[in-house]
């Protein structure tokens, strides 16, 4: 589940059991704080005690905010279960097409999507079976960046500015390039494939593809 899903379920359950009396919102504002930590002002906006929602969400109340922590597995499950993960109505925008170097954030995002597509094809051709990921530091950083996308997409929709989403996609792309180069999903030579890395690449493909579509750009499998 996404951080927003966790918090909405907590609000919905609290309303259903009569602990609070509010209209359940369609979405909640969530801010990523790094390393799987997410905070939301949902309780403040609903005018209820944050401890009520925090307790039901398995989190804690901190300065009026509700803070929850997700695992890498939580994030990957949420992304791979929902092909429309993070999709919101974001205003159209665009990065420059040139230069095609990593100094251009648009190229970095487009190339990360293409790389993730290549990994999926190569893994299929090589018969690599995926499994549960034991995430290292770089893989975890990518997962946290993926988890932050729905909140930034909703922010972009709310503010009618694609900027927050585009900046988040740039972070996802940078994290994916690090993983692709230093924690490859497709083994080299006689190396054994590391379980879960193909799924991580597939999750990056879903998020980056959805992000590009949201700003009005068709994702390309080849750059």
TrEMBL record:
Its transmembrane ranges are none
Keywords from the named record: ATP-binding, Ligase, Nucleotide-binding
- Location of the DALR anticodon binding domain: 109-223
The cross-references to InterPro entries, in alphabetical order and at most eight, read: DALR_anticod-bd, tRNAsynth_Ia_anticodon-bd
Q: What is this protein called?
A: DALR anticodon-binding domain-containing protein
* Organism (species): Actinomadura monticuli
């Amino acid at each position: 589940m996404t951080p927003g899903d966790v918090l909405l379920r907590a609000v919905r359950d609290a309303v259903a059991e009569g602990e609070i009396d509010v209209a359940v919102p369609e979405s909640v504002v969530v801010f990523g704080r790094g390393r799987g930590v997410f905070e939301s002002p949902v309780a403040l906006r609903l005018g209820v005690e944050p401890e009520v929602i925090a307790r039901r969400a398995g989190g804690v109340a901190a300065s009026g905010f509700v803070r929850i922590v997700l695992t890498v597995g939580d994030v990957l499950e949420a992304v791979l279960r929902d092909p429309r993960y993070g999709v919101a109505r974001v205003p159209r925008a665009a990065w420059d097409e040139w230069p095609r170097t990593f100094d251009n954030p648009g190229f970095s995002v487009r190339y990360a999507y293409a790389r993730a597509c290549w990994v999926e094809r190569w893994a299929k051709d090589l018969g690599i079976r995926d499994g549960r990921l034991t995430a290292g530091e770089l893989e975890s950083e990518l997962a946290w960046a993926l988890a932050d996308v729905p909140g930034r997409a909703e922010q972009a929709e709310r503010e009618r500015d694609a900027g927050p989403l585009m900046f988040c996609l740039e972070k996802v792309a940078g994290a994916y390039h690090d993983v692709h180069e230093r924690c490859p999903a497709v083994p080299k030579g006689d190396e054994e494939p590391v379980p879960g890395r193909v799924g991580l690449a597939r999750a990056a493909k879903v998020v980056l593809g959805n992000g590009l579509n949201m700003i009005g750009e068709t994702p390309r499998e080849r750059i």
